[in-house]
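Incident log, support desk, overnight shift.

02:14 A customer reports that sequence design results differ from what the structure should imply. Their input is reproduced verbatim below. On-call engineer (initials T.W.) acknowledged and began investigating.
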């Protein structure tokens, strides 16, 4: 599906800045390459007097774009692999909690709201010998930036370059939510067509949110949706989606819409799928069953 925030069980984390391990089948024995030194450089032209500083333990909101580091280029920017700027969706993280790669944890403290910082991050502070495939949509097509250029994957032992803008700093970390202990299924519309059973190929439309108890509809940040785009196809019970989907979609009938509240252990567990899906996050989906084959 879209976004950095896919439900395919085998998919790597959506945005390449996250601290989770590589999910590619690329050969991790790639020879070591000469790595640049870790470095930061600031552009504080938009900083206002009294601007708040990013510090460990604080919740911060940033925009970022990431490229492979290429020493042969004048600006050192190789292929672009991810960008919240392209999506128009800044991300929120809590510094010092391991939600992002070590290069971010070292490079972001001290930034002032309104400032921009360039980070050059050697592989040992990024993904090391791990590798990441290019981001793909639900149909397996590599995602593209606004200019139509496809995002690239991150090979093993890659140094990275990020441009980061600090949008806001919150001195109080958002409260820890209380997540549901079990899968909850609610039929919003009961279908009348063919029934979804294990082994059948299904076509669905869906929208996914991080579950929260802090809103009346339990919908936190939306991380993915097929609505308005191409419906998602998968085989039920084949382990191609998170377990909460394989268990929760069974019994739906074509024409029906079901709401699933999925606990973390049936979604992404302690790893999460940063930056969109935090560690130990429960998820909420609304799923419309279109076809059963």
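02:41 Re-run completed on a clean worker. Output:
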């Amino acid at each position: 599906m879209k976004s950095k925030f896919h439900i395919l069980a085998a998919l790597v984390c959506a945005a390449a800045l996250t601290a989770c391990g590589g999910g590619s089948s690329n050969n991790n024995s790639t020879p070591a390459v000469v790595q640049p030194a870790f470095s930061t450089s600031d552009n504080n032209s938009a900083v206002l007097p009294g601007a708040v500083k990013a510090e460990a333990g604080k919740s911060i909101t940033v925009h970022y774009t990431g490229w492979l580091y290429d020493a042969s280029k004048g600006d050192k920017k190789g292929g672009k692999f991810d960008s919240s700027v392209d999506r128009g969706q800044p991300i929120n993280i809590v510094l010092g909690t391991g939600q992002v790669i070590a290069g971010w944890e070292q490079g972001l403290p001290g930034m002032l709201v309104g400032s921009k910082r360039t980070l050059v991050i050697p592989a040992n502070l990024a993904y090391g010998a791990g590798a990441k495939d290019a981001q793909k949509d639900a149909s397996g097509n590599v995602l593209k930036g606004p200019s139509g250029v496809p995002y690239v994957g991150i090979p093993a032992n890659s140094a990275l370059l990020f441009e980061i803008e600090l949008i806001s700093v919150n001195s109080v970390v958002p409260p820890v939510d209380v997540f549901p202990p079990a899968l909850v299924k609610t039929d919003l519309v009961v279908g009348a067509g063919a029934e979804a059973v294990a082994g059948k190929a299904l076509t669905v439309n869906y929208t996914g949110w991080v579950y929260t108890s802090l809103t009346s509809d339990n919908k936190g940040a939306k991380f993915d949706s097929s609505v308005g785009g191409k419906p998602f196809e998968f085989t039920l019970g084949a382990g191609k989606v998170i377990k909460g989907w394989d268990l929760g979609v069974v019994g739906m009938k074509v024409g029906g819409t079901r709401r699933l509240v999925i606990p973390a252990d049936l979604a992404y567990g302690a790893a999460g799928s940063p930056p969109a899906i935090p560690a130990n996050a429960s998820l909420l989906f609304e799923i419309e069953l279109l076809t059963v084959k």
